[in-house]
């Protein structure tokens, strides 16, 4: 099967016409990403350790 050198040239104008329709543009507004992360456990553990240290360092304030 013999290929003609003209076939790519026929598709070139169509490709150029369609390529003008596709544009890539950065958004005007910044992209917003919402992350819901729970840090409750870390805060509770941190506060419990701080409270235990405070009670151990001040035994007169917290009698047993």
How many separate helices? 2
Q: SSE order in H/E notation?
A: HH
Over all CA atoms, what is the radius of gyration?
A: 35 Å
Structural class by SSE content: mainly alpha
Low-confidence stretches: none
Concise structural overview:
This protein is mainly α and 64 residues long. The protein has 2 helices and no strands. The model has no long low-confidence stretch (mean pLDDT 77).
Verbal overview:
The protein is mainly alpha-helical and 64 residues long. It has a domain at 36-64. The chain has helices at 7-19, 40-57. The longest helix has 18 residues, at 40-57. It is rod-shaped and about 100 Å long. It starts with 6 loop residues before the first helix and ends in a 7-residue tail after the last helix. The mean pLDDT is 77.
Please give a handful of descriptors for the protein shown.
single chain, about 60 residues, rod-shaped, mainly alpha
SSE arrangement:
Layout: H1 7-19, H2 40-57
């Amino acid at each position: 099967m013999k290929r003609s050198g003209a076939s790519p040239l026929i598709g070139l104008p169509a490709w150029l016409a369609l390529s003008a329709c596709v544009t890539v543009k950065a958004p005007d507004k910044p992209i917003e990403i919402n992350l819901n992360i729970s840090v409750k456990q870390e805060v509770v553990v941190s506060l419990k350790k701080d409270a235990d240290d405070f009670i151990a360092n001040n035994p007169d304030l917290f009698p047993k």
